[in-house]
Amino acid sequence: MKKKIFLVLFAAIAGTSVLFADGTLIGELYYNLNTSKKTATVTYQTKDGDNYADLTAVNIPATVTYDGVTYNVMAVGQDAFMDCLNITSVTLPDGITDIARFAFRSCEITSLTIPASLKTMDYGAFFGCDKIASLAWNAVKCDDFRAASPWEYAGVGYNATAPITTVVFGDGVQRIPSHLLERIETLTSVTIPNSVTSIGEFAFAECKNLTKIDIPSSVTSIGADAFNKCENLTKIDIPNGIITIETGTFAECTNLKSVTIPNSVNTIKGGSGFFDAGAFYECSSLAEIYNYGETPANAYSAVFDGVNKSTCKLYVPRNSINLYKNAPVWRDFYSISAIEDVQALENAEADNVRSAKVIIDGKVYINRGDKTYTLQGQEVK
């Protein structure tokens, strides 16, 4: 009681917010209470590691009440549940805005749902959580991770530890933060809703087992190196609305075979340095590029370094073929032909026309022996 009276008097004299210096136990959890703002931060009582020794599940409430006053729970503090090896599940309320460094380090969490309200999460918040297999990310607009992701510890070589295989971004998410899933090599499945407008730099870099990702048409910005070293991606359709393909975006995607570039793209970046590799640097398996740009995009000189331009086929609008054959970088491709031709051939394949086919003046014909026929069976003389 004396402590409370002293704090209240101090607040009245100084006119400042009051924090209980030690964790205040409410229910099963300890909190730092801000009596001025009526907010609470989940914390620990002491750092001896025994505060939550008996807890297996953490259910953080949206509000807590202490001495008749209700506080909104806004944050999980630094080291709050660090090394609590018995904790296997965590429930975060919508209202949490901040998760601090090492908040859940080395917990045994198996799945995780991030609420829409989250604004900031420090690096290493879930470092050492080596049992998290699925992530539901609902944060509408969370800050970028600049040093390392929540699964990494910047002091030990940026090694990610969470074995996440599945990520679902919830409806309403606007931005996928930079570095969010960097180096999650176990990741195989990603769901991105149409509410997402931007993907941050390095967001999926080095997700080496990611074989497919559908980028929705709502995305208008993809950061540098976003899919760098996603070596098992085989096909990428860049959405119409992207204006610039940044440096290293798909660099070293060594199994990437097919890329679609929309008409909206006017710049493709990439230098020759380690930190500014070409957007498609060392995409050594790239076999076809469908480029819908009527005017050749400004492609930096090193954009396609490591791509075999003698075998990779470049398809462009028919009326733009000559423009590409004379444009820097694009003219280096040995095979430049019309998108309309390859699309016609694909349509013919879909109609189960099994004979050998040829394209003459943009039209598909069937070869049988030494004769040529239209798709309707009429012989071409």
Low-confidence stretches: 1-21
Give the ordered list of helices and strands: HEEEEEEEEEEEEEEEEEEEEEEEHEHEEE
Helicity range: under 10%
- Rg over alpha carbons: 28 Å
How far apart are the first and last residues' alpha carbons, in Å?
A: 105 Å
CATH fold topology of the largest domain: Leucine-rich repeat, LRR (right-handed beta-alpha superhelix)
Major beta sheet summary: 7 strands, mixed
What would your notes on this structure say?
The protein is mostly beta strands. It has three domains: 1-77, no CATH class; 78-352, Ribonuclease Inhibitor (Leucine-rich repeat, LRR (right-handed beta-alpha superhelix)), CATH 3.80.10; 353-381, no CATH class. It has three helices and 27 strands. The chain has helices at residues 2-14, 321-325, 339-350, and strands at residues 24-26, 29-34, 39-43, 57-59, 63-66, 69-76, 89-91, 98-99, 111-114, 120-121, 134-137, 166-169, 175-176, 189-191, 198-199, 221-222, 235-237, 244-245, 258-261, 267-268, 288-291, 298-299, 313-316, 335-338, 356-360, 363-368, 371-373. The strands form seven sheets. Strands 1, 2, 3, 5, 6, 8 and 10 form a seven-stranded mixed beta sheet that branches. A hairpin with a 2-residue loop joins strand 1 (24-26) and strand 2. Mean pLDDT is 87; it is low at 1-21.
What is this structure, in a nutshell?
This protein has 381 residues and is mainly β. The protein folds into three domains: 77 residues, no CATH class; 275 residues, Leucine-rich repeat, LRR (right-handed beta-alpha superhelix) (Alpha-Beta Horseshoe); 29 residues, no CATH class. It contains three helices and 27 strands.
